[in-house]
Amino acid sequence: MSEPAHRATLSPATAPYVAKVGDTVIARSSRALILEEVSPRKTYPPMIYFPLEDVDRAVLRPSDHRSFCPIKGDAGYHDIAVDGGLLERAAWYYPDPLPMVAGVKDHLAFYRDKVAVEKA
């Protein structure tokens, strides 16, 4: 029996989501997307992608960091500046995502060890 291929599914969230750093809300959306990703050796936790329009862009600082995912494409990153602190590479986005996840274009996701993401 062969292992399943690396794949991702994208679906609309069924509830509003909020992203916070401490008590500061940096994103709130009723239009978030949920990306679920599975590779042959690993299942990833579902990730919430917020439309850029629903993110407080005043807290975003461009990062020079880049990465590549074979099913999502080239990722760019943002640091987050809140309450006098800077969370490096706390958010990422795909400016030109690959076809399997084309819907994440103009969306942003947050590392959950740096930003609390939860249902609103």
**Binned strand content:** over 45%
Name the overall outline.
globular
Give the strand tally: 10
CATH topology: Metal Binding Protein, Guanine Nucleotide Exchange Factor, Chain A
Which structural class matches the secondary elements?
A: mainly beta
Q: According to CATH, what is the class?
A: Mainly Beta
Poorly predicted spans: none
How much is the radius of gyration in Å? 14 Å
Overall description:
There is one protein chain. The protein is an all-beta fold. The protein has a single domain, classed as Domain of unknown function (DUF427) (Metal Binding Protein, Guanine Nucleotide Exchange Factor, Chain A), CATH 2.170.150.40. Helix content is 0%, strand content 54%. It has no helices and ten strands. The strands form two sheets. Strands 1-4-5-9-8-7-6 form a seven-stranded antiparallel sheet, with no helix packed on it. Strands 3-2-10 form a three-stranded antiparallel sheet, with no helix packed on it.
